[in-house]
Write a structure and sequence with these properties.
This protein is of the alpha+beta class. It folds into three domains: 3-203, Ribonuclease Inhibitor (Leucine-rich repeat, LRR (right-handed beta-alpha superhelix), Alpha-Beta Horseshoe); 207-295, Immunoglobulins (Immunoglobulin-like, Sandwich); 304-387, Immunoglobulin-like (Sandwich), CATH 2.60.40. The chain is built from nine helices and 26 strands. The strands form six sheets. Strands 12, 14, 17, 18, 19, 20, 23 and 24 form an eight-stranded mixed beta sheet that branches. It is elongated and about 105 Å long. It starts with a helix and ends with a helix. Residues 1-21, 32-36, 38-42, 397-435 and 468-485 have low confidence and may be disordered. The structure holds 2-acetamido-2-deoxy-beta-D-glucopyranose (NAG) (12 copies).
């Protein structure tokens, strides 16, 4: 802020070389401007303090500061990173809104002053605050709540007349856990004796400890569950349940010990939510967590027609917990997966599985209806899609279907019947791939078919039908015609 006029004046001086009368006049003007600038800054700065853009010092040995220094809005308090206050005997408190505007504050030193009180909300708006030195003040007590949300590298509190009380025992624990190397800490007992906190001058004062009634919260969708949290500690702690959104209805009772949390009619959407129980008293806090696992029947939420990727892909999304076992039916017959056709899960998100039935160079024999069956011990879901990859090069898919119908009986939509026999159609699909001989056979059979003119006309009509909509109806029609004739 104050940097540019100074730089500018210095540059002028360089330019003009040794000062000449004109330059001297200019020079005085320069200092005048600079002085005014400084005055402006100073006026925003409290008396007995010195301010720069980033720092505020209030060091006057006979300082008369009675409240925490506050800058006017025009002075950009958000840029201040360091506040250093010393020897202000009349400064007794840091109140709720005193430090609020210094959002970028990093170091706060208030030493050898008269502080007795710091609001528990004083530093709520100062996330960068990491160094606090409050040594040599008049604190007899200080709440942990003022500092608990801060990520401090230093919290210096020595030289205060703290009273031996459970209210300050957090300081010992805080310093032991965060700054293990800090010096010993003293308090005054009821007889004004100076006692080390190491000697445990306060009884019935300890960290809370929590225990959940289960480590494994596994529930079936639609059921209800109650989780219990037992907390010990002295003074007796308050208990709170902490979790991100739970969509299921839930209610809690934290006035009892153990505290309870009941979740009703549990939704599968709540699977994976972490539930924590937090107990807190003036000394500190403890927490325990458990992951909610919801078991539920599979649900196929997405199944679409194939699209060409590196391989062809029939995309799907399935939800289910435990992970559903996925099987496919091709035209109602179990599809045996192979190096040419296989299921691949691409993305797993909690209990959602997104993947593809991948097909490597599918041909006309792969055309047809694909049914995805997803199953786990809680149930089953299925969904179908019609796939058309390629026109039959040999003329007619009619004969393929005819032969298949004669050899293996009526194609059926009954999955149970077909799930456990080895599937001749699919294995043919795979082994016939790029097989010149079978194509020749198809051609011959196709030519033979031409003899039956009536049938040919019928076929042409049907072929146009397949071009326009290669859906389920087309292939069903194909099955039915030879059986009727
Ligand atoms: C506080 O001290 C400053 C100088 O240190 C002085 O200018 C100011 O008048 C004093 N204010 C009061 C209220 O005594
Ligand atoms: C700070 O808060 C205390 C107690 O709430 C009050 O007595 C005091 O006047 C406040 N100080 C200032 C400067 O607002
Ligand atoms: C204030 O903060 C800066 C940067 O975070 C650090 O380098 C400096 O040592 C701190 N001052 C004190 C007195 O700790
Ligand atoms: C706290 O501030 C005082 C006064 O500036 C200083 O003497 C002391 O070294 C500081 N303590 C630490 C640990 O930085
Ligand atoms: C706390 O600060 C330290 C370094 O000062 C940093 O490594 C750590 O990630 C911070 N923790 C949080 C929760 O911000
Ligand atoms: C308490 O004793 C320690 C070590 O003997 C000393 O450093 C500290 O200043 C004393 N505190 C008070 C308030 O007398
Ligand atoms: C949690 O419960 C599930 C189902 O009841 C069980 O399979 C699993 O082994 C349990 N895990 C632990 C750590 O108890
Ligand atoms: C616990 O219940 C109280 C009162 O019914 C409610 O205000 C609070 O939000 C609940 N807490 C949670 C985590 O659901
Ligand atoms: C349970 O929740 C489902 C949807 O999440 C709802 O359809 C059903 O009616 C609920 N059952 C009860 C008993 O509340
Ligand atoms: C569960 O999530 C799905 C989408 O992820 C949403 O459509 C459904 O409504 C949710 N169910 C409940 C009970 O919130
Ligand atoms: C399956 O998910 C869809 C939404 O994705 C939902 O409408 C349907 O109710 C779900 N079915 C079951 C059985 O949960
Ligand atoms: C996981 O699914 C949830 C909702 O179903 C969604 O909000 C979240 O973004 C998904 N996460 C990833 C990594 O896809």
């Amino acid at each position: 802020m104050g940097a540019w006029p100074r730089t500018w004046c210095w540059r002028r001086q360089q330019l003009h070389g040794s000062p000449r009368p004109a330059a001297t006049r200019f020079w005085s003007l320069c200092w005048l401007v600079l002085g005014a600038w400084r005055g402006l800054l100073a006026s925003a700065c409290p008396a007995s303090c010195t301010c720069s853009a980033e720092q505020i010092w209030c060091l006057e040995p006979a300082g008369n500061l009675t409240s925490f220094p506050v800058l006017g809005k025009r002075s950009a308090p958000e840029k201040v990173t360091d506040i250093y206050i010393a020897n202000q005997r009349k400064l007794e408190s840091i109140n709720e809104s005193d430090v609020r505007s210094y959002v970028g504050l990093r170091n706060l030193t208030v030493v050898n002053s008269g502080l007795k009180f710091v609001s528990t909300k004083a530093f709520l708006k100062n996330p960068s605050l990491h160094y606090i030195n409050l040594s040599g003040n008049k604190f007899s007590s200080l709440s942990r709540k003022s500092f608990r949300h801060l990520n401090l590298t230093d919290l210096i509190l020595d030289g205060n007349p703290f009273k031996c009380n459970c209210d300050i025992m957090w300081i010992k624990i805080y310093q032991e856990t965060k700054f293990p190397k800090t010096q010993d800490f003293y308090c005054m007992n009821d007889f004004n004796q100076n006692i080390s906190l190491r000697e445990k001058p306060v009884t019935n004062c300890g960290l809370p400890s929590v225990r959940l009634n289960t480590q494994n919260l596994t529930v079936i969708e639609g059921r209800s569950v109650t989780l219990y949290c037992e907390a010990t500690g002295s003074p007796s702690p308050s208990i709170a349940w902490v979790f991100n959104n739970i969509v299921s209805k839930h209610e809690n009772d934290t006035n009892k010990n153990p505290a309870s949390l009941t979740i009703k009619n549990i939704s599968s959407n709540d699977s994976g939510v972490q539930i924590s129980c937090v107990a807190e008293n003036i000394v500190g806090e403890d927490q325990a967590s458990v992951d909610l696992v919801v078991f539920f029947a599979p649900n196929i939420t997405y199944l679409e027609i194939p699209y060409p990727d590196h391989h062809w892909c029939i995309p799907f999304s399935v939800r289910g917990n435990p992970q559903p076992i996925l099987t496919w039916l091709h035209d109602g017959v179990k599809l045996n997966e192979s190096v040419y056709i296989w299921t691949k899960i691409h993305v797993v998100n909690q209990t959602e599985y997104h993947g593809c039935l991948q097909l490597d160079n599918p041909t006309h024999v792969n055309n047809g209806d694909y049914t995805l069956v997803a199953q786990n011990q809680y149930g089953k879901d299925e969904a179908s899609i019609s796939a058309y990859f390629m026109e039959d090069p040999g003329g007619s898919s009619f004969y393929t279907h005819l032969g298949y119908s004669e050899d293996y009986g009526t194609p059926t939509d009954n999955f149970e019947d077909t799930t456990n026999n080895s599937n001749p159609v699919t294995s043919t699909d795979v082994s016939d791939k790029n097989n010149e001989d079978s194509i020749t056979v198809y051609v011959v059979v196709g030519i033979a078919a031409l003899v039956c003119t009536g049938l040919v006309i019928l076929l042409i009509i049907l072929k146009f039908g397949r071009h326009s909509k290669f859906g389920m109806k087309g292939s069903v029609l194909f099955h039915k015609i030879p059986l009727d004739g």
